[in-house]
Amino acid sequence: MSEDRLCTCNKCGWVHMAVTRGYAAQKVIEFNQYYDKLSEEKQQNFYGGKGATIGIYERCFSCGQTDEDFRPFKEGDCPGGVTIQPTIYEGKKSKEETTCETPKSESP
User: Fold this and answer.
1) Which residue, 4, 101, 13, is CA-closest to 60?
2) pLDDT in tens, 75-95
3) Structure pTM?
4) pLDDT in tens, 36-83
5) Which of 56, 64, 68, 104 has the most CB atoms at less than 10 Å from its CB?
6) 77 CB-contact burial (10 Å; exposed 0-12 / middle 13-18 / buried 19+)
7) CB neighbour list of residue 51: distance below 8 Å, 6 or more residues apart
8) C-beta of residue 78 within 8 angstroms of C-beta of residue 6
């Protein structure tokens, strides 16, 4: 699955960028390498004294619903130009049988 696919939380309707577990794990490693080089003061002030974990990718950014209750993105789920957070979604967990659709870019 490409990293630019979208999926939607069934509980609250928040749209996320769907990523694989492998992609999310790599981003956690990269962030933690950066984080470990920071002073304790910066770690605390900017990141609450906590490094990244795969868990941040396993829940809806808005309501906290687990990644097991997401569905493929449908046209109209999200207006253009908004910020979208990543979540693990590989399609197989969805209650629907379809896969995530790559959204069409909107013209201004």
Assistant:
1) 13
2) 889 888 888 888 888 865 443
3) 0.70
4) 999 999 999 999 999 999 998 999 999 999 878 899 888 889 888 888
5) 56
6) middle
7) 31, 32, 35, 36
8) yes
